[in-house]
Structure formats: structure tokens, C-alpha cells
Amino acid sequence: MAKTLAEKILSHKSGLDARAGDIVVAQVDLAFVQDTTGPLTLREFEAGGFDQLADKERTILFLDHAAPSPNQQLSTDHILLRRFAEKRGCLLSDVGQGVCHQIVAESFARPGDIVVGADSHTVTAGALGAFATGMGSSDIAVAFALGKTWFRVPETIRVVTSGSFQKGVYAKDLILHLIGQIGADGATYKALEFGGDAVDLMPISDRLTIANMSVEAGAKAGLFAADDLTRDYLTKQERGNDYQPIAPDNDASYQKTIDIDAVGLEPTVSRPHSVDNTALARELEGTRIQQVFIGTCTNGRLEDLAVAASILKGKKRHPQTRLIVAPASRKVLLEAIETGYIKTLVEAEAVIISPGCGACLGLHQGVLGDGEACLSTANRNFKGRMGNPEAFIYLASPATAAATAITGRITDPREVL
Amino acid sequence: MLEGRVFKFGDNISTDHIVPGRLAHLRSNLPELAKHVLEDADATFASRVNLGDFLVAGVNFGLGSSREHAAMVIKMAGMSAVLAKSVARIFFRNAINLGLPVLICDTDGIDDGDELHIDLAAGTIRDITNGSQLTFKKIPEIMLRILDEGGLMPYIKKYGDFKL
Ligand code: SF4
Fold it and tell me: Could A47 and B97 be called an inter-chain contact, meaning their C-beta atoms sit closer than 8 Å?
């Protein structure tokens, strides 16, 4: 019988004929934690009496959320992670390497894989055709030890995007629009599967942005077929051998299909304090912004810095608006140096911070003051997210962020392009 | 039978409301972290709860991060169950993995301060204050077994594997 991407991957990895609604136990190809969920995972692993990792080469500890660490407690948590990696022989991605999801995409996730991570944005790897989902520390501790976990096979919502984006409109606007339409729980327990001619032409960097935010609609996974563009991306990362094509069957059964016409999309912004509270950028013009943050696992890739640099070239940030840029990985940073984007951004008076989560979750490097507003390219704008419950967070594309940095007010990027 | 008083919250209570990222430095000091439970939704909550009370919410409770600490501090605060109209996926799994029951039901008729009696085996919730009775959605079999063992770690210790 015809299958969705989720059913295909879960069937293959469980050895069963997995259908939406079934509970299966499936093999895990990659399991990871980061530095704010890792310490609990490792303590649970030890307390569980496990002493072997199922696959050391496919177990990773990332130091990215507090990187470099801002205080003694988090530094001590980092020691715990480093010692575990040394003792158990798994991989460690230390401070400065970048955000877990970016590195998983660059170096680890393969089409058809099952990826589990103690971080909700693990869904990002769905862009490469992997069934990737976030779990808590206990689940990951068990996945570390047994190399498998249980899943309820999700129903799938198919999102079909046709046509092409207008100038100034990006993948970020598409996913913000979708979440605004279906709501922050519009896909809870379900997989979102993206297709259509706009998606077929979409570079992997854009697919990563969309897959990354699928969890903001509650989705368990955000899935894309693996096609020629996936192969080209993996080849560029020197992982051509990791490629295998994977696509849903034509007559797979979906819970519903949502059609989006890319031509009709406009630059979109999520308003405080929820991601589904969307509006068009032009409707919010005039909203004063004290900090612009460009980075994160959503939009901290080379392509994002390129867009920001092209808008900021020869310009400067507004005197009352700080501009913070965090490349998603060391690789992104190096390429942004080589291409000159970093120079352009620094000339525009951006502060470049180390590859990692940066200001995204309110630990360091850009905590907001009382009453301040930030326009961020991240994925989440919950109250308190950037370290201060008295602050306000707007989410948008790197283009909208760069335009806003120049004017100091929320600005539709089409005005400056 | 679980008995306790209701602490009522609204819709879309996120993991950032429950344990904000700015307190990440306390995650290896759980008793200290637990003092801040739900601080960004109700600053007085931690000081008012009693052992056995119920956390009752609207839709999409626990959305956001995968931090298991969110379910953990709710349990540490003494809550014996979470009741909500709907619950975000990772929070649901985390709570069950820690042995904290999560019951999906229509919470509109339950008010702050109500006294509830809950029979998990029978699947019933009685609101003693207003005399109404509710049922909750069936929990998947595998989660019930994990819950029965008191959480995922005791479950895996006992069976050594997942048993479907
Ligand atoms: S960049 Fe932000 S959303 Fe992404 S993993 Fe880091 S903290 Fe989470």
C-alpha cells in the first residue's frame, strides 16, 4: 500500500508495515543532546545502570546553547559532558563549532535516517529526508543505550506550495504564514510533509528553515523528499555517499492537504508572544525595535547572512538599534569570512558573536532589557524567551531583519531591495 | 484514587513559562530550579501548592522545548496529575516518562480551587466542588505500562527493552 514519508521511514526502520496510528519500535541512526538537556540525559543514563552506548560514532554531545559559557554552573555542566564523551567514546562538539541542528545537517543526517535529539528543533533534519524528532532526556538516555525507541506513527498533513516567491519573500515567510494559518497546535502529533513545485526548486538551506519551524505548529516531524538538490547539498558537504533518494508514494493517504500559492505570500512577522500571532511586515511598520538578531538553527546559514549582507552593504544600523549576528556553525562563519559577508556586516556595525545559539534562548549574548523589543530570525517568541519576560520578540526573515536594522522600525524588506 | 485541589492555567502555557531558559544554570540543581516552577505564568504558584494538587490548563499545554525539567519541576512541586484540553507532544512523553499522569479532557468546567477526585484505572474525574463528572482520553497502551512502572527508567530496568 502507498505510504507517506513518515510511514516509509518508520516501516523500514522497524521492519514492520507501519501505518499512521501504529506504535512501533524502530532503530535510531543518530541520537544527540545539547548542553542544557545533556547533563540530565547523562545522569539518567548512569542512573539507569547502562554502561555501553549502542553506537558511539552516532552519539553526539553538543555544547552550543551556552557557548562560551556565561557562568560557573553552566561551565560545570560542560565539564560533565566533556568527561562523559571521554569516558564513553562518543562524539563531542565543543564550544564554537555551532548549533547542533546545523551540524547534524552538515555532517550527520542522511535521507531515510531516524534522528532523535534532546532538543525540540531536531525536526530540522527532516529537510534532508530523515525522520527527525525531539524528545526529552529520559527518552534520549534510553536511545543512547539501546539504539532504538518507540514511536507512534504520525498521521501526515501534506503542504503543497506552488509557484515562486516574489522578490523579498523567503522560506521563512512561508512557514510563518503556514503556522499563522493552522495555529501553534495545528499539527500536534502529526507529521508535516512539504511538496509542490516551489519546494522542488527550493535549496536545502530553505528546506532546513521550514523543517526547523514545523515543531512550532506542534508537528512531530517536518519532512521533505530527498532529491537531486539533496544529493548536491550532501556532495558539497563531502557526503555524496550518504545520499539515497526517498519520496512519498503518489497515492499515499494524508489526513489533509494544504495548498499554498507562493506568489501570494508577503514578508510575514510573528508578533509577541506566540509564533502563530502573525501579521504582514507592512502592517507593523513603525514598530520600534531596539535589537535585531540574525542567526539560530532557523536562519543562521550562509544564505541568510548573504541576504542580510546584500541589504546592509554600504549602510549602517540605526543608531538606536543594536544588530547581533550569530553564524549557525564554524563552517558558516568561515565561509562568511571568505565571501566578505562578515566584513559587510561589521561595517554596518553588527556585533558578530560565536557560532552557536547566541541570544536565542536568553542565556547570554543579547538578553533584552525591560520593555525592549527584538526582531529575531529565530523560531520562537514566547514570553521570556530571550531572557526577560518584560521584553517583546518579533520573528521574521533575515531580509526583514536587515531592513529593520537600518530603519530601527519593523520594515518590509521590499522597501530597501 | 488521586485527590487534590485545582490550580487553573489558561491556553498555550509553554516550557518557557514553566522553566525559562534564563534559569538554565539551575538545571543541575533541581531543588533550586523547582522553586521557580511556572514563575512566568504565576509568580505565586510555587508558594501556594500542596502535595497532591492538580495542574489544570487549556489547550497546547507544555508547548516548546524538549526540556524534561519542565515536567520534572511540576512533579517536584507535588502535582499528582496534569489535566489539559490538549498537550504538546514532547511534554506529554516527558511527563509519562517521569511517572506524572497527563489527562486529556475538557477542562472548561473545572475552576481554580475546585476539589477533584481522579480514578486513573476507571478513567473518571469527579469535580467535588461542582458535582460534575468527566472522562479523559485513553492513554496509549505503551505509555500506560511506562506509567505503571513509575516512569521510563524503572520500566526499562524491569524489561530491559520496549515491550509492545
Ligand atoms: S538556536 Fe535557538 S532554537 Fe535553535 S537549538 Fe539553539 S536555542 Fe534552540
Answer: no
Residue A365 CA to ligand 1 center (angstroms) comes to 13
Residue B40's domain comprises 2-159
Contact with chain B for residue A190, Cβ under 8 A: no
- The residue among A32, A177, A176 whose CA lies nearest residue A117 is A32
Ligand 1 in reach of A99 Cβ (< 6 A) = yes
| CB < 8 Å to A152, chain B | 140
Residue B127 lies in a domain: yes
In a domain, B164, yes or no: no
Is A138 at the interface with chain B, CB within 8 A? yes
**Distance (Å, whole) CA A155 – CA A133:** 15
Q: Please, are residues A29 and A152 in contact by the beta-carbon 8 Å criterion?
A: no
Q: Prior bond to A319 cis, omega within 30? A: no
| CATH number for the domain formed by residue range(s) A5-261 | 3.30.499.10
Q: Is the beta carbon of A379 within 6 A of some atom in ligand 1?
A: yes
Hey, where are the domains in chain A? 5-261, 270-415
Count the Cβ atoms, other than its own, within 10 Å of residue A161.
24
Q: Does residue B64 belong to the interface with chain A, where contact is any CB pair within 8 Å?
A: yes
**Taking all residues of chain A, what is their mean pLDDT, rounded to a whole number?**
97
Distance from CA of residue B161 to its chain's centroid? 25
Instruction: For chain A, state the CA radius of gyration.
Output: 20
Question: Number of structural domains, chain B?
Answer: 1
pLDDT tens digits along A365-414: 999 999 999 999 999 999 999 999 999 999 999 999 999 999 999 999 99
Whether B90 sits inside 8 A of A135 (CB atoms) is yes
Identify the CATH assignment for A270-415 out of 3.30.499.10, 3.10.580.10, 3.40.1050.10, 3.20.20.100: 3.30.499.10
CA-A360 nearest atom, ligand 1: 2
Name the residue with cell 563552517.
A331
Which CATH number belongs to the domain containing residue B74 in this structure? 3.20.19.10
The answer to whether the CB of B92 falls within 8 A of the CB of B102 is yes
CA distance B161 to A151: 14
Task: Report the candidate in B110, B81, B99 with the shortest Cα–Cα distance to residue B147.
Answer: B99
Which positions in chain A touch B84 (Cβ < 8 Å)? none
Q: Does residue B45 lie within any of the structural domains? A: yes
DSSP per-residue string spanning B68-137: THHHHHHHHTT--EEEES-B-HHHHHHHHHTT--EEE---TT--TT-EEEEETTTTEEEETTTTEEEE-P
Q: Do domains A5-261 and A270-415 have the same CATH topology?
A: yes
* Residue A273, preceding peptide bond in cis (omega within 30° of 0): yes
Cross-chain Cβ contact A119/B153 below 8 Å: no
Which string of b and e fits B20-42 if b means at least 16 CB within 10 Å?
bbbbbbbbbeeeebbebbbbbbe
pLDDT tens for B2-22 read 999 999 999 999 999 999 889
Largest CA distance in chain A: 61
d(CA A183, CA A18): 28
Say whether residue A49 is in contact with chain B using an 8 A CB cutoff. yes
* Distance from the A189 Cα atom to the nearest Cα atom in chain B, whole angstroms: 6
Q: B131-144: per-residue pLDDT in tens? A: 999 999 999 999 99
